[in-house]
Design a protein that fits this description.
This protein is an alpha/beta fold. The protein has one domain: Glycerol-3-phosphate (1)-acyltransferase. It is 44% helix and 16% strand. It contains eight helices and seven strands; from the N terminus they run ααββαβαβαβαβαβα. Strands 1-7-6-2-5-3-4 form a seven-stranded mixed β-sheet. It starts with a helix and ends in a 6-residue tail after the last helix.
Amino acid sequence: MRALLIALPVIALYVALAAVTFVPLTWIIRDIRPIYWVARQGCRLALALAGVRVRFVNLENTRKHRVSIFVSNHVSNLEPPALLAVLPRIAFILKKELRRIPLLGYIMGLGSFIYVDRTRADSRHHALEQAKQTLANGVSLMIFPEGTRSRDGKLLPFRPGPFTMAIETGAPLTPITVHGARRLMPKGSLKVHPGEMTIWFHEPIETEGLNDADRGKLIERVRAVMEEALETGPPAAN
């Protein structure tokens, strides 16, 4: 708790300084890279001040392809900043409600973040077209296929969207398994407990040449990778 009390004013100051410097620059040049760099550093700072240590396993798997669709289990709000802090240029696929957040929604729009209205079929089609363009521009995608955070740490059913995107675009799927984040900040809690979380990047799965008939097997393959990793736990630190 003490770490959080120290972190909050520092983070607030960091955000304020970024808002009056890099946000106007981003708006003028219409380029997300300056604010993206600031966001990455801000995520690292926030995690460090909150006492959260992040250990990455097989980080080299994130750089084996020009672009990739990263898919991760989802148990905590700590995962997005931890992933943003380390992954190459990425765009998250998010629920449309987040677009309404003042300033942040605008910045995420510049960053090619994709919004989905899960109640409308045409929104999913539009998201697929945006995903194709985002990948063509050299920006990878980050998706939580469960669609929401798991309360007990067990995998929820996967939504088919990320796998359809991978098949339609031919982009490789890189599974990610997060360990320990639920203990530090479970769903429904605003309190962050100091400690370590581990993010394990698995071997990318090629999707070139697959079609819609292969989607079920692709989902099963990714799910099997994550379930095994959750059962065995991450490799020991060197």
